[in-house]
Design brief:
single chain, Rossmann fold
Amino acid sequence: MITSSLKRVELIIGALLVPLDYIMMIAAGYTAYVVRFGNTVSTLRAAVYVLPFGDYMKILLASAVVMVIIFAFNRMYDITGTRRILDELRKIVLACSTGVLIVMILFFFNRELFSSRFIILSAWLLSVTYLAAMRLTVIIVERWLFRRGIGVHRVLLIGSSRTASILFDAFRNSPSLGYSVIERALVADASLFDKINKVIKIKAIDDIIVADQELSREQIARLIEFSKIHHLDFKYAADIFDTQVSHIAMRPVAGIPLVELRRTPLQGWGRIFKRAIDVVFSSLALVVFSPVMLATAIAVRLDSAGPVIYKNRRVGETGREFDTLKFRSMKKEYCIGEQFGNPAAALALEQKLIQEQSIKTGPVYKIKDDPRVTRVGKFIRKYSLDEFPQFWNVLKGEMSLVGPRPHQPREVEQYADYERAILTMKPGVSGLAQISGRSDLEFSEEMRLDTYYMENWSILLDVYILFKTPFTLLKKRSAL
């Protein structure tokens, strides 16, 4: 059974911290204003200059944005399984102190803002207090969820060393750490990988944690490759081997430093931000292109009998299957899928065409001069109009605007083990392979480009691909 590498609980909590921090900063500034210009303090010491509340709130709202940005640079929004209270307090005091200093510098020439030293000091103390209380509440809620098994990382622990025993006892006795040992392999012998394979098949595992100094480099390399193939997070006790790797994260658990090898930089906030972009722009695309989609649907229906939308089974993130939505571009009797009759005859014809007319080698096929395609189908395939309904797949979270090309289950079955690592990410409407040759690339080249995208993902790379996609659609393809 394949599980998600990053628990939904972690993503939700990480996403909530930004607006909660912003609200706490506003609350601290508002409280400082009310206290300073309230009856009690004003009676003790009258204000020489009273800043209008409306003007003050404008400054406060802008200052709170600056503070949140400073928090981000201080790594206060790292998405991890557990948060340590002392570390959170240290970050809060440092970030708030730095933030207040920067805000003072930014508004240095506006003397009215800082005419009250009381507001500055009280706002700083209140922001530390409010943020600490809020973050402490988040930690308590997070640990409460972990103790009930919600969002916990299910672990396969490898090793019989003292370090492994410490981790095993810590995970077993402290559920609030967010880890649960589902299986432990004590001996790193020839049967290790047979045992791991059996565990993976019958139990849901999220992480493989290695805490055994006796494992050879070859065994470690095999475990890393195994983790990639099965979409598992790989962690190890520090100093098992001193090799240079990219996309690593390290944090202590029970006093033992654990290093995580990440399959892709698309983790944590990158994942949240990418999903936000998908939701916003897929919604916008569905509205903006609705006239084009309506015209295409009418043309498809008038050209040939059958459903307008063709549901095509594909393999998505972590191997989950889903139906991509496309405008039907083939005659009804030749379409393959549950929504169409006579699937055996249609599949037999397709296999015959693949053998005789496919321009690709390997698991993926592409039929040149496909006789099953309708007149309208040729046109909408040429300009990728048939793929516009996939914006709905993006909105549902089955696909992304940018990602690896989605393939059919029977194609994925022919993947080599190392090629299955590409299923780490959601497939995309567009992608690096799509803009580099559309459907004309050989499978090996397509896989190389998709793997590069997975291992080097960034927002800028997504923007580049989206910008180049419309220009790529105008290029002629060798197969329609």
